[in-house]
Structure formats: C-alpha cells, structure tokens
C-alpha cells in the first residue's frame, strides 16, 4: 500500500464513543480474519510434511519437501511455462486491442457505435457454454487444440470486450483538446493516440492489464477443455491433477497453489492503487 | 482506426456465437461432427433439426430445476456480497487507526486466483479432516458434511462465492463513497439529521450509479460462475449445486457421447435469459431517472 486516498477530515462534533469505536474495530477485525484465514492456512499447510496436511496445529515439522517435490518430480514447471507464455501474450495483445477499441469508441462518432458499446457489455453475458463448443470445433479445425495460440485467442474473447469498456471510461476523462493539439502539431490519429493519449491513460492500462492477466491466469473452463496431455496443461489444469477422484495429494496441491498465487498477488499489489479509480471510471462513465 | 478493432471483435466473438446458435439447431454430437481419426478425415454428418433441441430442453424438468437453483444462487450471492461489501465499505470509509491494514486484508481474496482459493476452501471443507470440522469438534459439535449433503453443499458454494466477490464490491463501493462530497454530510449534521437519515438520504443516492453497475455485473458473473461450482463440487452431490453453465459444460465435455448441440441450446437459452435480465434492469434504472 503506497497511497491511501485522503481521509475525510475528522468530524469534531460527532466523535465516536469508545463503544462505537471498539465495535468498529471488532467488526473489521473479524472480517479481516475471515478474509485472510484461507490463504494463510494454505501457506501454513504447504510447509507441513505430507502426512500432517490436515493437522490443526501450526507447523510442527517445518519442511520444504512439498515444494521440492512439486518442482522436481512433477510437470509443474512445464505448466508454469505454458501459463506464462499464454498469459503474457494474452495480456500484451489484450491491452493493446482494448486500448485502441476504447479510444475509438471514446473519440469517434460512427454509425453503429451505440450497438458496439452494447455488444461489448453483452459479451460479458456470453456463458462459457455458448462459445466453448464452437471455439472447440474452430480450434480443432485450425489445428490449434493443445496449442498456446488457441488459448490466447480464447482468452482475448473474454478479456478484450470488458477492458475496452473500461478503457473508454478512462479516455473519456482525458480532454479532447489534447487530441486536437496533437492534430494541429501534425500527428496522425494513431500518432496522437500512441504518443499523447496513451501515456495519460497509464492507470487505465494498469487496470486493464491487471484484469486481463488475472482472467487468463485463473481461467479454468477453457483451459480444462482445450488442453490435454500432461505437457500441455496450464496451471489451472495441472493443479486439478493433484486432487481429484483418484488422488489426494494435498501437500503438493498446497505448495503448487502458493507458487501460483505469488505472481498473481504481486501483479495485484502493483495494480491495486489504480483499481479504485479504474473501476469507478470504467463503471460509472460507461 | 475503428475498422480493424471491430473486425477483430467480430471474428473472435461473432463467429463462435453465430456458430453456437447454428449448432443449437442441429443434432451435432461427438459421433457426427467433422473429425480426424489418425490420417482419416471424416466429414460432418449432423443435420439441421430446427428447434427440436429447444423443445426437448424446455419440456424437460432438468432445465427448470437447474434454472431455479441458478436464480436462487445468483440472488443469494449477489445480495449477500453487496450487503457485506456495503457494510465494510462504510466501516472503512472513516478515519480510524489501521485503516490501510484492514483494507489490504479485506481485498486479499481478490489478489489470489479464484481456482486457488476454491481448492483451498475444498481443503477447509474436507469432511473427515478439514479444519472447519476439526474446530467444530473442538466445540463438541458433530462434523458437518459441507460438500456431501445437498443443502450444506449449496450453502458452502454460496459462502465461497461471497468470500470471493466481496473485495470487488468493497473496492467499487469505497470508490463511490469517496466521491460523495463531505460537505453534504456536514450540512446534514448541522440540520440535525441522524446517522441513519444521512445514510438513507446521502449515501444511498450517492452510490446509486456505482451500485447499479456493480450489481448488474456481479449478477452476470455469478449467473455464469463456472469455477466455484465446478472445482468445489463438480455440480454434486448428485446435481444439487449444478448451475446452468456447469450443466451445459457437462453435456459437451464430461458426458459421453458429448452432446454439442444440446449444450449449445442450453448456452443460447442462458444468453437469452441474461439479456432479458439486463434489459429489464436497465429499463428499471431509467425509470428512476438514472442516465446510465
């Protein structure tokens, strides 16, 4: 946490009583414990020997065995690599597409614009079930099943519409005069966009980048359906192999889960100070 | 500059959508779609059957059962998430010590990929040796079959989804609260308005724009929430927690033979339902004078 929004000045006439203050802290503390406990327990469990996975005590025999097992004896690193490639490509392409679309919708008036805005929002409603079979057939006929490119295309269909919608909200907050100044100085529309507007929309880019990353990093349905064979799985698919009908390797599961959660949490920490601004810009000015 | 983008979106969304609608009007399944077996290429042999799939789905009790639970699931999740989020946002929007700490702790669930959290909850819910039941045992209470009893399983999946959804609500509503000018509260206080009156007449209207959007988004997301159900219970026990989306997924990827056409028909029905919800919701907002 680097920047908290400025707190409203304390109201003097209405100072909280000690009781109210205690209740406030107690309520928040309970909520915080409920929020933090599951991930914390996951972390604790990952340092326990396999047989202790379900003991209620904190770590009694601290061990890295789960981690070394996951890293050395399973396909985990392959899954990790697959995920990084897929998610990286998705994020870069997704942010670029969302930014250009958002800018176009924000600045240009063209026939079919309102329907396009609606379309962007409505795609949020497309259930996995409508798209998954056609996409499956489509990818199969293009030979893209079990290929990273297949999942990248799929994830773009999920992330780009919503991100474009959020980016429009951001671009709407940037004065049009900046574009006009760029135009006067002889920049073409793309130059104006790339050199003037985009740098100003950096918080928006952070938010959409974060959203795209998280969407792709945590996607389960498509990843489970399109990728088969141990060496092609992504992290979401791979994790399922540790705990399913047949095996119950909670030790490996917890260690793998911690390793998967860390990059996501880091990206989150990086983007979170823009989240409030990003979400409200995107959602209220849509 | 618009053209390529529209084109890309058209291709990556339009094509699968049109094709999905088309499939829902055929009798396509695993056995008759175009496929390659070894070096042999088998052409598609499914045929157009018009609205037969829809007739079959709508006259079958399964669809209505699943729809009932999906609606209950959505309403329960969204209202609980919103209430908890609103309460916590109001608590956080005050000067108090440890604010940053509380805020960080409360949005932590958002920072962790959902499927990781869901697996973690599966571990906590474990009937024989999960920590929840161990704690209950410590208090002398019998083990609860969190995921193995239809009713408990329903409560459990709702609890997990609320846990996952609160941070988003919290952050959005906190942003909304901070955009309400403090002077309004000061003026109201001068006029002797009680805390409840201030909440009712300043906070609620001030949050309307943000809350109407997050409620709609959250409704759509919850309605289609695949990972929570699929990873926590696989729709079980039986089909107690199966929502429309997971059922449609089961039809085309878990059942054998895979029934592509019926699954597509379910998908189209889900889309129609959500579109109706969105349109009605928007109209209701407009009637209240909302410009959104």
UniProtKB/TrEMBL annotation, chain A:
CDD domains: TM_PBP2. It comes from the Bacteria. GO terms for cellular component: plasma membrane. Keywords: Cell membrane, Membrane, Sugar transport, Transmembrane, Transmembrane helix, Transport. GO terms for molecular function: ABC-type maltose transporter activity. It is found in: Cell membrane. One of its GO terms (biological process) is maltodextrin transmembrane transport. This is Carbohydrate ABC transporter permease.
